Every structure is written in C-alpha cells, then in structure tokens.
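Reminder to self: tokens first, then the designed residues, so the page reads top to bottom the way the pipeline ran.
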C-alpha cells in the first residue's frame, strides 16, 4: 500500500479547514476563526438550519508560483462548517475582522420557540 508514496503523504490532503474556538457567556456566543491573510472579500458566511455556520472562501498566494522556494502555507479554496452551541438567525450575527481573526458573535435568544401540538 505504501509502495508508491510515503505514509505521511498518504494522509496528507490539501483540504484546509480554518481552526476555531467557541466562547459563550450568559448573553452571547462568539466563534473566533483563524483566517490569516484572507481578505474580507474572499470569505463568505452563511447559516444553515439555524445552527450550522458555513464559512468558505479562498486564500490567495502572495507571490507567483514561479517564485516559490519553499511553500508550507495553504493556498486555495477552503470550507468549514461550525456547529453553533445555540440556534440563531442570520440577521443577528455580527462579523468583526481583526489581525487575521474573524469574530462571529450573536446574542443568545431568551426563551425557547416551543409550539404546543
């Protein structure tokens, strides 16, 4: 199985997913995503089923490939789905870009939306 490639290459995929942390207090949830070198225009956020934050975009190379001597950073398309700890609505989410981090913040909705049958 490993005759054609080294073991570390077998598991190496070019599938990049930004790292993130999730914080919460009594009133808000904050997701902090690492997106160093990504311009606001190159990343999109969407919300699916009130709890899945979908982040996708592109990390653009800084220099042409012909100039590469060594390349360790990832360049190309990425997507990350973050399962939110509390449901929300898209219009309640605020985004703040700072120093290669994106802060995705939204208020926790008080009271459950439960319907009697």
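Designed residues (117 positions):
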């Amino acid at each position: 199985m490993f005759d054609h490639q080294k073991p570390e290459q077998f598991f190496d995929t070019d599938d990049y997913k930004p790292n993130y942390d999730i914080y919460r207090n009594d009133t808000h949830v904050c997701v902090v995503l690492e997106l160093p070198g990504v311009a606001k225009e190159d990343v999109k956020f969407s919300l699916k089923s009130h709890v899945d934050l979908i982040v996708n975009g592109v990390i653009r190379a800084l220099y042409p490939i012909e100039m590469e001597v060594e390349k360790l950073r990832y360049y190309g398309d990425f997507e990350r789905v973050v399962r939110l700890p509390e449901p929300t609505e898209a219009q309640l989410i605020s985004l703040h870009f700072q120093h290669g981090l994106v802060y995705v913040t939204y208020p926790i909705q008080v009271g459950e939306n439960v319907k009697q049958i």
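Residues 5 and 61 are 27 Å apart (CA to CA).
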